[in-house]
Amino acid sequence: MKDIHTTCEWGKGERWGDAETETGMSRLSLSDTDKQARDWFHETTTALGCKVHVDAMGNQFAVRPGLNNDAAPTYAGSHLDTQPTGGRYDGILGVTAAVEMLRVLNDNWVETAYPTAVVNWTNEEGARFAKSMTASGVWSGDIPLEDAHNLKSVIPANDTATMRSELERIGYLGEVPCNWEASPMAAHFELHIEQGPILEAENRRIGVVQGVQSYKWFTVTVRGRDSHTGATSFQHRADALLTASKMILASHKIASKHGALASTGILNLKPGSTNTVPGFVQFSLDIRAPQDDTVNTIEADCKSAFSALAAGEDVLNIQAGCTPSSRQCTVDWHTDFVSPATHFHDDCIASVQAAAQDLCGSGEVSGRDIGSWGKLMTSGAGHDSVYANKRCPASMIFVPCRDGVSHNPSEYSSPEQCADGANVLLGAVVRYDKL
Amino acid sequence: MKDIHTTCEWGKGERWGDAETETGMSRLSLSDTDKQARDWFHETTTALGCKVHVDAMGNQFAVRPGLNNDAAPTYAGSHLDTQPTGGRYDGILGVTAAVEMLRVLNDNWVETAYPTAVVNWTNEEGARFAKSMTASGVWSGDIPLEDAHNLKSVIPANDTATMRSELERIGYLGEVPCNWEASPMAAHFELHIEQGPILEAENRRIGVVQGVQSYKWFTVTVRGRDSHTGATSFQHRADALLTASKMILASHKIASKHGALASTGILNLKPGSTNTVPGFVQFSLDIRAPQDDTVNTIEADCKSAFSALAAGEDVLNIQAGCTPSSRQCTVDWHTDFVSPATHFHDDCIASVQAAAQDLCGSGEVSGRDIGSWGKLMTSGAGHDSVYANKRCPASMIFVPCRDGVSHNPSEYSSPEQCADGANVLLGAVVRYDKL
Ligand SMILES: NC(=O)NCCC(=O)O
Ligand SMILES: NC(=O)NCCC(=O)O
After folding, report:
1. How far apart are CA B34 and CA B79, in angstroms?
2. Helices B292-310 and B240-257 meet at what angle, rounded to 10?
3. Phi and psi of A299, rounded to 5°?
4. Cα A346 to averaged position of ligand 2 atoms, centre (Å)
5. Is the pLDDT at A365 greater than 50, yes or no?
6. Residue A168, C-beta contacts closer than 8 angstroms, at least 6 positions apart
7. Residue B266 has pLDDT above 70, yes or no
8. What is the distance between the alpha carbons of residues B395 and B388, in angstroms, rounded to a whole number?
9. pLDDT in tens, B368-391
């Protein structure tokens, strides 16, 4: 808990409560405050006896030697970047619990069979550079290094900084190539807050994560015509914002039909004047579902609905009551990011489950008994473990968070819930090392 | 035409054609380029023999003496500021034609009975400071000076410059009080492009403007809850952007029902990340109709529809097919600007009509005959003449613009159309002076 709140001094966000630590976080990837958190990671893990290296995406790897150092380390880790209005636990808990693991191993003179290690991945959030899990994706070979280096900051809109220029600026463009061969892993375990309401609602302490749902990110561009709001009749308009509004509503209706999710988090328009009908709108679209097929179907349905709406046709009853226009808008799609459904590795899932059983399975307080302490679950959010899982066995540990809220300053897990997760993380790594 | 294109070197906007002058304008009020245009106005009118003064809102008044200088001058004028993606005619034509009037009077040794004058009003567009016709509104006593001085720049969002700080910065915070007593007018005539399609469609040369429709501007704020796009079900969301999209659509449907206009030109959201459901959206709403009553009815209808949408109720069939949420958004309204329907003064309308008759009424080229050359019309857009009309007789002259397009870089009126307007402006001022 001390590490969490120490590192959260760098990049403090909005206040949501009265207590000293009741503020959120705003530590965008590769910002000055992200550099401060990285420096802390480097110094702390070095002081704990690790050998630390940085790769070409700024990923930080801290390795604690084992008895036999010819094999790859078993890793615990997550990320230290946050959303612009994020909280103190998303990612941060995973890294600080992994550092705590190093301390517990040291304090107890534990010699693991093989090395153990901690990783801090760059730009997991995809908030500042709009590809989530960018740097673990480069490490796994799924995202080309150059594509990642050239990603432009989207906060604020039209910022010209790239991942590469920011890595250089803050001194984290490492010399080690970014790939799974240069920084090999025997396994990857990640502790994370659930970011959803299930564990809390069902009063369970630990989520044993079997996989992650499928998702895709798009940038949708709508072009119309700038015109005067007072002198242009509805019939003569090509209103890019009205059309984008219909599209956002349509994506919600389409996703609802499939019991899935579609969301828009970014919207920029031009020119941005009260009395000019906007001729240009660009917005993000994030589509998610447990199955890849469902995501693809929603994408296809949205594509045809958006085209129809741009052309002024009635779909999903959205046009009913609108004034038809003799001018059309155009719509273009760009795919920013694709993360297919992920199934974690059985050995890692078993290690997590066994470690959780060790912690919660007997001698329970508050009447929890074996079986009801935890839950096998699928993550709604993406995590670096998705890409890690492509190159080594991986799994994750979830702990409950209040109200299921994340990507929000008031995101909160209690010290006890964090400690539960840290204990299971340690247990899973030690078990896997033995395996 | 030379003055138009000379002054349009300051604040050049987007290119839309190949010819040298085929670019739009982006000369926001009180910007550095607006200062350049103002300096041109001062030097040019001074060189033409006028006495020029600047008031506390930066309005520039250039007075050409008459035979009897004990009475107020008859004014021609408009504004030199533009939209962020504006054209070369909106406002600019009105000022340059008024300056041309001074030249014609001088060149022909015309001695008017009373003084004639030209005015350049500050921030007519309301683009940078979101109250249109701000400085004529202060002059007429309708907008308190302090309110106007404290208006914040809305481009870019969160700019901290105010009208007062910008007036000071560019050296146009004049010492003359801004009001109709310190800078009295006998009458106010304004030449403007129509900004709509009627004159062109009906093949008429001159619009004799009898009045301006009613309009109101609002800022609508929607608050929800930041949350994770992948881990938060639709049921648990308070999605401020989805809700704002529904509101924009609802305002369009409500205005359609009344044969009126509702438009959103500005939309800002927070936090602005692909994978965070926005918890905050703020957008502009511009409602217009010929009658004040209609504007008020649309405002009331939108207020109840927006509240219902924020609460998740079905209105105008917008919610059908959406997933109901157990969380609500809140909505707040702020009224930024009110401009009731305006009826210009009969004497001024008659002067314009007579001057237009002089120009077009006989000896017509291209087969136009008396009666078909012009049209009595109401303006869809607001103009400084609205406020001028509160303190002196006023009217306006419209000329056609291509495709009826304005607030767009490709806004265009031909040199012949501009000359028609300038001739009628001169004629109307001279006639009124005699009156
Ligand atoms: N865990 C998390 O917030 N990851 C960000 C990537 C995503 O949007 O799912
Ligand atoms: N003429 C013009 O564009 N005026 C701006 C005020 C308005 O929005 O009507």
Report:
1. 10
2. 150
3. -55, -50
4. 66
5. no
6. none
7. yes
8. 9
9. 334 788 999 999 999 999 999 999
pLDDT value for B377: 94
Residues 383-412 of B with CB under 8 A from A: 404-409
| Chain B from 150 to 169: CB within 8 A of any A CB | 154-155, 157
Is residue A216 within 8 A of residue A333, CB to CB? The reply is: no
Percent of chain B with pLDDT over 90: 96
Q: What letter would DSSP give residue B394? A: E
Identify the residue among B219, B226, B236, B334 best suited for mutation to test binding to A, counting A beta carbons within 10 A and taking the highest: B226
Helix, strand or coil for residue B62?
strand
pLDDT for residue A362: 57
pLDDT, average across residues B33-62: 98
Ligand 2 in contact with B411 (CB < 6 A)?
no
pLDDT bin (cut points 50, 70, 90) of residue A157 is confident
- CB of A257 closer than 8 Å to CB of A276: no
Q: Cis (ω within 30 of 0) for the bond into A271?
A: yes
Whether residue A366 has pLDDT greater than 60? no
Q: CB–CB of A322 and B252 under 8 A? A: yes
The reply to whether ligand 2 has any atom less than 6 angstroms from the CB of B187 is no
B327 confidence band (pLDDT: 50, 70, 90): very high
pLDDT, tens digit (0-9, with 9 covering 90-100), for B111-147? 999 999 999 999 999 999 999 999 999 999 999 999 9
Whether residue A266 and residue B245 make contact (CB cut-off 8 A), yes or no, is no
Band of residue B362 on the pLDDT scale cut at 50, 70, 90 = low
Residue B198 near residue B401, CB atoms below 8 Å:
no
The whole-number pLDDT of residue B11 equals 97
Q: What would the two tokens of residue A102 be?
A: 């190093």
Whether A193 and A401 have beta carbons less than 8 Å apart is answered as: yes
Residue A239 has pLDDT above 60, yes or no: yes
Contacts of B207 (CB under 8 A, 6+ apart): B194, B198, B199, B374, B375, B376, B377, B397, B398, B399
H/E/C letters for each residue in chain A? CHHHHHHCCCCEEEECCCCCCCEEECCCCCCHHHHHHHHHHHHHHHHCCCEEEEECCCCEEEEECCCCCCCCCEEEEEECCCCCCECCCCCHHHHHHHHHHHHHHHHCCCCCCCCEEEEEECCCCCCCECCCCHHHHHHCCCCCHHHHHCCEECCCCCCCCEHHHHHHHCCCCCCECCCCCCCCCCEEEEEEECCCCHHHHCCCCEEEEEEECEEEEEEEEEECCCEECCCCCHHHCCCHHHHHHHHHHHHHHHHHHCCCEEECCCEEEECCCCCEECCEEEEEEEEEECCHHHHHHHHHHHHHHHHHHHCCCCCCCCCCCCCCCCCCCEEEEEEEEEECCEECCHHHHHHHHHHHHHHHCCCCCCCCCCCCCEEEEEECCCCHHHHHCCCCCEEEEEECCHHHCCCCCCCCCCHHHHHHHHHHHHHHHHHHHHC
Q: Which tens digits make up the pLDDT trace of B80-110?
A: 999 999 999 999 999 999 999 999 999 999 9
Under 8 Å between Cβ of B74 and B117:
yes
Q: pLDDT value at position A156?
A: 81
pLDDT above 50: residue B38: yes
Length of chain A in residues, anyone? 435
Ordered DSSP codes for B396-432: EEEE--GGG--SSTT----HHHHHHHHHHHHHHHHHH
Q: Write down the pLDDT at residue A159.
A: 86
Minimal-distance CA residue to ligand 1 atom 5: A125
Element (H, E) at B377: strand B374-379
Tokens 């002058």 appear where?
A: B21
Express as a percent the part of chain B with pLDDT over 70.
Answer: 98
